[in-house]
Amino acid sequence: MEAEEQEEDANSLSKDGSETNSTTSRDCRRYVPLGIVFVLLAGTAAATWYFLGKKSTRFFPCVGVRWGRVKAMSSPTSICVFGQHLQIKSGQIWANPSLLRINYRPWHLEPSVLQFYSGSLQVLNRQYFPDLGEVESRAFWLESAKLQNMLKDLIHATELGRYYNSSTVYAFGEGALTFFFWFTLQIPESKQKEMTAERVNTMLHQELSASFNISGSLSYQAEYRVNPDSLVLLGEYPLLSCGLSHQTWPQAYRVPKKGYEKIYGCSRQEPVVEVLSSGPVMSIVWKKAMYSYYDPFILTAQAVPLKACEVNITLREGLELQGKISTPHYPSYYSPNTQCTWHMTVPSLGYGVTLWFDAYALSRQKQDLPCTQGQWIIQNRRLCGLRTLQAYAERIPVTSSADITITFTSQISLTGPGVQAAYSLYNLSDPCPGEFLCSVNGLCVPACDGIKDCPNGLDERNCVCPAKFQCREDSTCIEFSRVCNQQQDCANGTDEEQCSEGVPCGPFTHRCDDGTCVKKPNPRCDTTADCRDLSDEERCDCGLQAPLSRIVGGANSVEGEWPWQASLQVRGRHICGGTLIADRWVVSAAHCFQDERLASPSIWTVYLGKYFQNTSSHTEVSFKVIRLFLHPYYEEDSHDYDVALLQLDHPVITSPFIQPICLPAPSHLFEPGLHCWITGWGALKEGGHISNVLQKVDVQIIQQDICSEAYHYMISPRMLCAGYHKGKKDACQGDSGGPLACEEPSGRWFLAGLVSWGMGCARPNSYGVYTRITQVLGWMNQTMG
Ligand SMILES: [Ca+2]
Ligand SMILES: [Ca+2]
Ligand SMILES: [Ca+2]
């Protein structure tokens, strides 16, 4: 928190700033723990390999630890893998006659410099026998050990020998004995490019052919007559930190020359990966390098029934959501070569159909380019799917017939996270009542409210009164705070008309629970009944300060002045601010939890009623966090959707020192120029230590386009700026997630924003950027619901 008291600091700082003007990156206002040093396993010479049967169950109770061939039951079968350095394991899971679903939870990321290959070979002078199907049988052990040596000799007989790292034989196929193996090559970086899968394949095939023709020699072909043409090799797998590769083929027990394959990486967006095969056999390879001593993952396999994907849907009258379409077994990854068709029938030609996607958008693609994330054909238009971090709606107009056909197909070798869309009807003549239809993403957005909601900004073009009220009589613009304030501001007083009755809904009207709208701005909890159903005066036990003598202009706050302020701590250290918004719910910024070590709810303690950091007082109460929700569209780089919700472990008992703040209605206006307050224990100056006493600073709401320009158009509609052109007063490191609170004339405080980011602290022309609460309310209410 940086305030006027620190004016000297601020001045010296801005001088410093011009001298050390190298900081152009955006600061995340978080208390960054020191010394985040990831020791990367540079090279893998020291890596220890864990082979078949060497798994440890010391850390985790493993059910059905098996390696090699695993029969899938219709209930999940678990396979746990442990190791302490680097590991590659592979196996085959079989289920007949159904599909397989793989559920994989990656834990950590670590680069690797090994090349990994898997494949199979056929031995002409041996036959499969049932004992070889049992991973734990003596026959399996003897045969696999001998073949493993044979494989090692084979590799050593080629140029690849010097790169040999490890190998294993993990399963056998029927008929003339086919054995499945993997091996790894440790290749110097300079050679990695030339050592392609094709080259490795050629070298092995040449060696096999040459030795096959030498009869009676001492070569590895002496005991095993290996068919050189039977070599199937899949690889080289790219240097993924960890991942899951997926090969499927249509028929069990027979591996075609060209297996389909796809490798999935690990990402925090997908903490659990569920993968479907496209047939009854699935070969899987886990590849994982590690940096921690405790790094398990769990994999379960399950046979799931085949599911048809052709559906007829008849829509009924009405504009509400009517249902959802999805890829089979959603949210599991869809199978390679998925083909889905939905036939929709609308009740009349006046309607179109809207498909509401979540984090997935459709776009036109040039005819010759493939769709790697799903191809859609909607009324003969070809569109490609694309995973995004935004909402998207596809509008399908109906022209000559009431029937709509939608198909989804995935490429034969590619899969991806399951796709789902909700569907509803829309009026062709008025698709967005009272709002603007953004053609880029199909969403209805408020027009002329001063925020460019539509990516192309068309919702704010040609506005007579941007973000202001337009007098009907002469189109003069007045501020919304002058509407229904019982003073005549428009020439004929139209600003004071219809203030106590329902009006047509628009971007600036307040929507009551019964769906009717009122003209008066911000009518919530102002002790006047404005909605017919009185919903504007319900749930108003919020936003009141303890009756205290306020110290005006001071940087130190008074105990009980900000009873919704929370301190979010890890092991006794204040990391971020937060705001109490309801019983058991605290809102904060998503970036507070972005570091992997801060992502677990169990490490956090939330303090309410706190005033001093270094001592505890009788007013404070601590809570553990039972659940932590980050906005699903939160993006680390842009800080878009920087909001998180914390659910507390026990109820909050309110007191003069602990009170929730009021949440605004979606239409609540925080007009530019309004003075609001930010509070927190953040640093008193840029680069400084956190403060012992809870601080407060008043800041002014800044017009969106002015801030957007100051920050080179990095300001999204989910952001709100506050501060001063000259700087001096701002939030700082440690204030993150804390409230930007604005007082209404009724004396109640409403949450306008959350401290998110800014360029330094209190620098001139670098306003503080806050998460705009009215834009993330939908997700918040849904999550707390
Ligand atoms: Ca707008
Ligand atoms: Ca007025
Ligand atoms: Ca009211």
From TrEMBL:
Report the SS bond pairs: 432-444, 448-463, 484-499, 505-517, 525-540
Task: Report the PROSITE patterns cross-referenced here.
Answer: CUB (PS01180), LDLRA_1 (PS01209), LDLRA_2 (PS50068), SEA (PS50024), TRYPSIN_DOM (PS50240), TRYPSIN_HIS (PS00134), TRYPSIN_SER (PS00135)
Q: Name one GO cellular component term.
A: membrane
- Indicate, by first and last residue, each region the UniProt record lists as having compositional bias (Acidic residues): 1-10
Query: Which GO biological-process labels does this protein carry?
Result: proteolysis
Q: Which UniProt keywords apply?
A: Disulfide bond, Hydrolase, Membrane, Protease, Serine protease, Signal-anchor, Transmembrane, Transmembrane helix
Composition-biased stretches, type Polar residues, lie in 11-25
Task: Report the source organism.
Answer: Cairina moschata
Q: What is this protein called?
A: Transmembrane serine protease 6
Q: Where exactly are the transmembrane stretches of this chain?
A: 31-52
List each copy of the Peptidase S1 domain by range. Answer: 551-785
